[in-house]
Amino acid sequence: MLVFDHVTKRFGANTAIDDVSLTIRPGVITAVIGPNGAGKSTLVNMAAGSFRTTSGRILLDDVALQDLPKYKIARAGLSRTYQNIRLFDGLTVLQNLEVALVPRSLPRLIMQAFGLSPGSSEAEARSDCETVLQRLGIAHLGERHAGSLAYGQQKLVELARAIVARPRAILLDEPAAGLNHGETDELKAHIQALRSPDLAIVLIEHDMKLIMSVSDEIYVMARGAVLAHGTPEAIRGNRQVQEAYLGQPGAMGTIEAAARGRRNRIRVRAGEGLAWGQP
């Protein structure tokens, strides 16, 4: 279980996160949505160690993450993807995944160096990586350099790297950003397949169609605070959410109807010229 316990984050005089409490349960997919600037990415960055909390706690089961360096947070069992892809372009796909397993493999390698442990950790790591790539349908790309892949393939490699170390919690930061309709459908299937009683999943995303179809529960944020929490059905019909997030009551249905009527998929990015006075 991943818990944000009365978390606040201030940047100087600006309060980006204001006394937010969230509980991300294992076995379900929990989405966090809201207009641009609502604080979603700040939450992810605090959990992953990129930002320090001003106050409050972030707990992964019984481990407090808020004061740990990034590598200890990763070792505690939290992994993430990025809105802007961060692969090692000069390494192969398999090597990108093997990097994520170094903390797990290092103690065994040291023991082997002193003749204290039989077996090949390198072979086991390679096997684990190949299994994950097969699971995501990209095993044929294993020996390709990550920088040579198409954008949608790179997104899948980043997802593979996030799950190969068998995390206890995973933060997916806008995984569908930049994907076309077919790639988004493929991603949706992979995210649904991640459901496990041992894994807490956080999905940060602007694609409302994906959110409503894949999430089990949703937190809506606005101006650094939690505006609403509930099932996709409850959030869809919440008047306050519609007014704050989409601009006016009934906007969700109007936008979805317009999207179905167009040949190309429309991506809704909340907060752009709607109720928040942003350009």
TrEMBL record:
GO terms assigned for molecular function: ATP binding; ATP hydrolysis activity; L-isoleucine transmembrane transporter activity; L-phenylalanine transmembrane transporter activity; L-valine transmembrane transporter activity
Residue ranges of every copy of the ABC transporter domain listed in the record: 2-248
SUPFAM superfamilies in UniProt: P-loop containing nucleoside triphosphate hydrolases
Superkingdom per UniProt: Bacteria
Keywords assigned by UniProt, alphabetized: ATP-binding, Nucleotide-binding, Transport
Biological process according to GO: D-alanine transmembrane transport; L-alanine transport; L-isoleucine import across plasma membrane; L-valine import across plasma membrane
GO cellular component: plasma membrane
Family under the similarity heading: Belongs to the ABC transporter superfamily.
Identification of the protein by name: ABC transporter ATP-binding protein
